[in-house]
Write a structure and sequence with these properties.
The complex is a heterodimer.
Chain A lengths: L1 H27 L15 H8 L1 H34 L5 H13 L2 H14 L6 H25 L3 H9 L4 H29 L3 H6 L7 H11 L3 H24 L9
Helix pairs in contact in A: 1-11, 2-11, 3-6, 3-8, 3-10, 4-6, 6-8, 7-8, 8-11
Chain B lengths: L3 E9 L5 E10 L4 E5 L6 H9 L6 E6 L2 E2 L11 E3 L11 H11 L4 H14 L15 H13 L5 E5 L7 H18 L2 E6 L2 H7 L2 E6 L2 E6 L1 H6 L4 H6 L4 E13 L4 E17 L5 E3 L6 E10 L3 E7 L5 E7 L12 E5 L6 E3 L3
Parallel strand pairs in B: 3-8, 3-9, 6-7, 7-8
Antiparallel strand pairs in B: 1-2, 1-4, 4-5, 9-10, 11-12, 12-18, 13-17, 14-15, 14-17, 15-16
Helix pairs in contact in B: 2-3, 2-4, 3-4
The chains are: A mainly alpha, B alpha+beta.
């Protein structure tokens, strides 16, 4: 029984990780084409990646967008969750569904809808509408984790704080926020990854000369197919892994990362 | 000064539950006052309105003569011990206790001193740096108490604070809480569904039923003179006998019980505590009954007897009672004094 379970887990893991391994192999392989086994180990593609002005500009934009998305989606998602769970707002259930809908909707639809909105309203495509798009798709991820921690939150803790002399704002700062913080941070992590990896929404909303890393990689791939793409992917993957590990080390994820 | 006065206090929850229905109460300063009643009768809601966590739909709440009805909880200056303790899990014991002082901007050195005093008061020292999750239930209870009293409240509210503790610990805490109350001289409003707890600790008890006060009085009064069947039933074991009153007698199935006072003729019910029923040789009492069951309680024997007509009656006999009377199937006579039965109001 146990052996069967372990081997199924192993298979699933292999299925998930094999593509990543192939990318890694490709990134360190000096050959300009996919070959196995690699003919050697080189940093050639990494060098090409970091010295490419286009890629670096795209990388910079993606990082900036990611951080801005985390700040906005993190704040909005947390506050929206509080409002939805705590207030007597009419239509709370419907609103919750609306806020979370970008998770279930195909992202390409969200992207296309935002594109149409930008065009019809005359705003056009620019980095701001791109940021707005990222915030729209990232906010539900924050809300998922924050709603989850809030649902398990014992309100009598806030009452205890109030009874001891805390104003509602003080009770929030001293008791609520520290206790929901792991959920907020996990949500922000998801938000960053959703933004940093975002393809469909960015595809519709990037303006020429302002490409994000996934779009720049896609464009590059259309004309060239060498290890630079693999190097760029490897950098993205390492960044995500570093983020997850960093957060796991500081606050722990297991309890709050359930989706 | 710090008495608590509730007038016409009512709480109707959305959905229509009248959790508290026009309650009038006057709790004296320094009094140990219990709200006692079965689960769902509105005790917690009443306490939460006094604390300010729930706004009454009608009525006023005065504390020390000052109208508190619309003050937020943080401006009422009361101490509260929650049923689940509500300790802050992300703070240490010392930080939990210091919270109220921090909110009052008490200087740091004073905070430390007062936290130490409060923890000494509840006899919990040496655990200052632990988190609540590293404490036993009894220790958590003490922290909750220390956190509530460290701010020197004039009124302390407790919602079934000992409910989660095992029997032995509960008894020990009852004594400590009572001693603490005497020492601090604060007004204590205590919610419990445990009649024994209310009887042993309180100066006065309000027995609640469905959002109203069924009876209010000192423990002895509530125990000895319940006015309604509900209170008689809720407070300890009791026998309820139904018959027809005429003058100083209550006529039952072919026998009669004396009454403490003359009652208007008509159907009537009395409450009679098992310990008031005396056993004797058959034919020597008011009525003869057959022993159905006898349970040894340690210091006494609780008997279930059948009266003529088949009604059961409980009697608590001292363990020295003649063994022949205690055996199942034995016949015994029952007797009590005229002042023992308590006539109940028509329910
Ligand atoms: N927040 C609430 N919303 C709706 N009904 C409630 C709420 N709190 C309590 N009630 C109802 O009010 C009644 C009294 O509850 P409560 O005061 O908690 O009783 P007790 O503490 O005596 O067990 C119960 O019927 C309970 O279901
Ligand atoms: Mg209750």
């Amino acid at each position: 029984m146990r052996a069967a379970f372990l081997s199924v887990c192993g298979l699933v893991l292999a299925f998930l990780l094999l593509p990543v391994l192939i990318v890694l192999c490709f990134a360190v392989n000096p050959d300009p084409f996919l070959a196995f086994p690699p003919s050697g180990v080189s940093t050639r593609w990494f060098v090409k990646f970091v010295t490419s002005r286009d890629f670096m500009a795209a990388f910079g934009l993606s990082l900036t967008l990611g951080v801005a998305t985390v700040l906005i989606a993190g704040t909005m998602g947390t506050l929206a969750s509080l409002a939805l769970l705590r207030s007597s707002l009419p239509g709370r259930r419907a609103l919750t569904g609306l806020f979370l809908s970008p998770i279930v909707l195909p992202t390409i639809l969200t992207g296309f809808a935002l594109f149409q909105l930008a065009m019809v309203s005359g705003v056009g495509r620019n980095p701001w509408i791109l940021l707005a798009g990222h915030v729209v798709v990232a906010t539900p991820y924050v809300m998922r984790t924050v709603l989850a921690v809030l649902a398990n939150f014992d309100r009598s803790l806030e009452e205890a704080a109030r009874g001891l002399g805390a104003t509602p704002a003080q009770a929030f700062r001293e008791v609520t926020l520290p206790l929901i913080r792991p959920g907020v941070i996990a949500g922000c992590l998801f938000a960053f990854i959703v933004s940093f990896d975002q393809f469909p929404v960015s595809l519709f909303l990037v303006s020429p000369g302002n490409e994000t890393l996934p779009i720049a990689m896609f464009n590059y791939l259309r004309f060239d197919f060498d290890g630079t793409i693999a190097a760029a992917s490897t950098v993205s993957i390492l960044l995500a892994v570093a983020l997850v590990l960093g957060i796991e080390r500081t606050i722990g994820l297991q309890e709050y990362a359930k989706l | 000064m710090a008495g608590v006065v509730l007038s016409g206090v009512t709480k109707v929850f959305p959905g229509g539950t009248r959790a508290v229905d026009a309650i009038d109460l006057s709790i004296g300063e320094g009094e140990f006052f219990s709200l006692l009643g079965p689960s769902g009768c509105g005790k917690t809601t009443t306490l939460r309105m006094v604390a300010g966590f729930e706004a009454p739909d009608a009525g006023t709440i005065l504390v020390g003569g000052q109208d508190m009805t619309s003050l937020p909880p943080e401006r009422r200056g009361m101490g509260m011990v929650f049923q689940n303790y509500a300790l802050f899990p992300h703070r240490t014991v010392a930080e939990n206790v210091a919270f109220g002082l921090k909110m009052r901007s008490v200087p740091r050195e004073d905070q430390a001193k007062r936290v130490r005093n409060a923890l000494a008061m509840v006899r919990l020292q040496g655990l200052e740096e632990r988190r609540p999750s590293q404490l036993s239930g009894g220790q958590q209870q003490r922290v909750a108490l220390a956190r509530a009293i460290v701010i020197d409240p004039t009124v302390l509210l407790c919602d079934e604070p000992l409910g989660a503790l095992d029997k032995k610990l509960r008894q020990a805490m009852q004594f400590e809480l009572k001693a603490l109350h005497r020492r601090l001289g604060l007004t204590l409003v205590y919610v419990t569904h445990d009649q024994e707890e209310a009887l042993t600790m309180s100066d006065r008890i309000a027995v609640m039923r469905a959002g109203r006060i069924a009876q209010l009085g000192a423990p002895r009064e509530i125990y000895d003179r319940p006015t309604s069947r509900f209170v008689a039933d809720f407070i300890g074991d009791t026998n309820i006998l139904e018959g027809t009153a005429s003058g100083h007698m209550l006529h039952l199935d072919g026998w009669a019980s004396p009454l403490p006072q003359a009652l208007p003729p008509g159907p009537c019910a009395i409450a009679l505590r098992p310990e008031r029923v005396r056993l004797g040789a058959p034919g020597a009492g008011l009525v003869d009954a057959t022993v159905e069951e006898a349970n040894f309680l340690g210091d006494a024997v609780l008997l279930k007897l059948l009266l003529p007509g088949g009604t059961a009656i409980l009697a608590r006999a001292p363990r020295e009672t003649d063994a022949a009377l205690l055996a199942p199937g034995a016949a015994a006579s029952l007797a009590w004094r005229a002042e023992d039965p308590v006539p109940l109001e028509a329910a």
